[in-house]
Design a protein that fits this description.
The protein has 378 residues and is of the alpha+beta class. It has helices spanning 14-34, 37-40, 43-80, 85-113, 135-155, 184-188, 247-250, 275-302, 341-345, 350-370; strands spanning 124-130, 158-166, 172-180, 193-199, 210-220, 234-239, 255-260, 265-269, 318-323, 328-331, 336-338.
Length: 378
Amino acid sequence: EAPANRHAPRGGSSSMIDKLNALESSYDELMRQISESAVQTDPDQYRKHAKALAELQPVVERFREYKVVVKEIADTQELETSGDPDMQTLAAEELPGLESRRDALMVDLKRLLVPKDPNDEKNVVLEIRAGTGGDEAGLFAADLFRMYGRFAERAGWRLEVLSTSETGVGGIKEVIAAIEGRGAYSRLKYESGVHRVQRVPATEASGRIHTSTATVAVLPEAEEVDIHVDPKELRIDTFCSSGPGGQSVNTTYSAVRITHLPTGVVVSQQDEKSQIKNRAKAMKVLRSRLYDMELRRRQEAIAQDRRSQVGTGERSEKIRTYNFPQNRITDHRINFTTHRLAEVLGGDLGELIETLATHDQSEKLREATTGDVAPERA
């Protein structure tokens, strides 16, 4: 490397610096507008501008600090060629510290530019359904539910079963549960998709390996402030519960079926003896499904080219294979393999989730520093 380039700024591509300059210009323009009397007398406009300023301020302040350090590096480099031995010695002493500070600021800037998922701190509605494979698929769905339950327990989260439909052999046709805890969605959002298992069923006399599937959906729990559901757009039916629950359950109209007429989404709930409780649980699931539908619609509209991101996988996409004969789990989205199958099914999902999250962050960072997407914040 040529000596003249030895101290050139590192870490920031020209497109990234252009983006940072554009954000700084936007910040200055907002500052100008917010000082105008017209904005100050309009509460809605003032709040809008103030919110935008607050979102931009951290990255702009860090960028300005970065530019100051880059200028100091350039000035110090001039001292190296001044011909004055004392100045050259001083420059040689100061440059490493300045370069270290510059590089640290660039790391901060990259982090600040990565879009943040506003749903990361939300609770989760987890839905698991048996797929192809008959009874074995139901047993696999039950295995997955136990896995997530143990993971939630390790994390100190609270899990509440909202509804469940079991098979006759200890499996699960469908289970819907709420998981409440700090950062639950940020950790579990990568689990949506088709999970595949390859193993020899206990009832298989010839020892042949069977392949079965189960689908997992992880929805950010939506509050009423997140999505408005017009009561006029709901059809609510009540009926007698069926299955386990005893005589009092089966002879009262406690079960609830809610249909959202505009979308056709149907949610049924019958696990509670109280119609009020069943209705509340059904509304929790309905809001989360509608919110998830809206999120996906927005993602489709603005991110057709983001198929590589693990956080927005399609429900129909095969994301992971659990191979029992080889004691192997492979996540197909990032080509990651681990031979800790028993530990993962026992709730030790940390390594898998961390690897997926790191990949997702890398993709978002690449896009944020080279594309045209402005930083998003919760």
